[in-house]
Amino acid sequence: MTGAARAGTASATGTGWPDPDLRQWYEQRREASTSTVTQVPLDALRDWRTDPVTGDLGHRSGQFFTVTGLDVRGDGGPVPGWQQPIISQPEIGLLGLLVRRRAGLECLVQAKMEPGNVNGVQISPTVQATRSNYTRIHGGAGTPYMEHFVRPARGSVVADVLQSEQGSWFLGKRNRNMVVEAAGPVPAQENFRWITLRDLQLLMGLDNVVNMDTRTVLACLAAALPPPTRTTGDAFAGLVARGFSPTAGAVERDVDVLSWLTALRSHRPLDVRRIGLSTVSGWHRDRYAIDHDGGRHFGIIGVEVRTTVREVPGWRQPLLRPRGRGIVAFLARPIGGVLHVLARAAVQPGLRDAPEIGPTVQCRPENYAHLPMSRRPPFLDAVLSAPRERIRYDCVLSEEGGRFHHAENRYMVVEADERVPVRPSEEFRWVTPRQLATLLAHSHYVNVEGRSLLAALYSLAGSCP
């Protein structure tokens, strides 16, 4: 299996595996996954074709996704305009987590191989499938447990909401995030396991174990859970727990947070136009990849996949390969005795309702290395230079392994010092974790990186049902 096997390594703030049996199961599933992912020429991708007019790269069935081009203007940021490739996947996929109530809440997860994962297998939700996959366009096996989400029993739905995905790499991509309570006994099939919600949250402290799709569903579940209870002597954990409480005071009213975001959306900060992939300027294509002329941002490559643990034994597809490792971070601090995080209105060209609420910092630093210091992302240096005692969460987590090749971000929660003002600028607001969780009961308010950090915050807070 290609890629470095780094899963299961405790992060700087992780505590290791919560259950030795869980680790043994996970390692057994990884060893049983006989898989290889090999780069191949783009013109050797079976079942994919380059449109002779637009240059777009798409599947012959018209399903799955297309790599197309985008022209972006009017951002007002470090770069006023640009063109880029982007993945267009208009169909809505399903991310579903099946839960049951025992001594506490338990979740049915799977050890799932994705071709772009840096370590092959990561812990996924019960169901993680595009519409093309679960309608079996690939001609392979069906998706296990799909019936629980397509036809949920009356009263069994805990959370159900459409959410966006990476707005810099996807054009208008959305997935249906669902949590459904099992109506009766549900045995775990091969590659699946029932684990406690608390154990799943604790796994958030390990590098490259809990995949992106699980993290976003966990964040949506947070809106339906009672606030966590502090169970340790750690003062920061107590602050986080209180930050999820609906009775704790926030520096901004909920309606003011909504008004702030709505006003920014009304200004239409981006003018986005789809263009043919062959007309994208600043990028070049050779036999093996589509790359940025300056060697920044990302590239598009082709891969051949061979595996024993997926619906079909092999296929070829394009993947988006980022350059470098990203930084995704919340600055956090108590205001009035309640933990707040510094949220930013994240403007990304692929979001349907740009901007969405995102982390304080969300970037790949090397993409800004050629720019003057004044044009670096705000607070990036404050995060990177934070002393160890102020770093409360620090973990390397993978992004969508079905579309991205070895895409990793360093996720961080950093205690801010007094130099960070209460109102840094119009694009930032201090909000509580509870306010973010409440917004996640609705679509397109909190971006996918913000949802991953919200799931991480909940894991830091203490006990849960």
Automatic annotation (TrEMBL):
Signal peptide: none annotated. Residues 1-16 have a biased composition (Low complexity). InterPro entries: EvaA-like, EvaA-like_sf. Transmembrane segments: none annotated. Residues 21-221, 256-457 form the dTDP-4-dehydro-6-deoxy-alpha-D-glucopyranose 2,3-dehydratase domain. Gene3D superfamilies: EvaA sugar 2,3-dehydratase subunit (3.90.79.40). Residues 1-21 are annotated as: Disordered. One of its GO terms (molecular function) is lyase activity. Coiled coil: none annotated. This is Oxidase EvaA. It comes from Micromonospora echinofusca. The lineage of its organism: Bacteria, Bacillati, Actinomycetota, Actinomycetes, Micromonosporales.
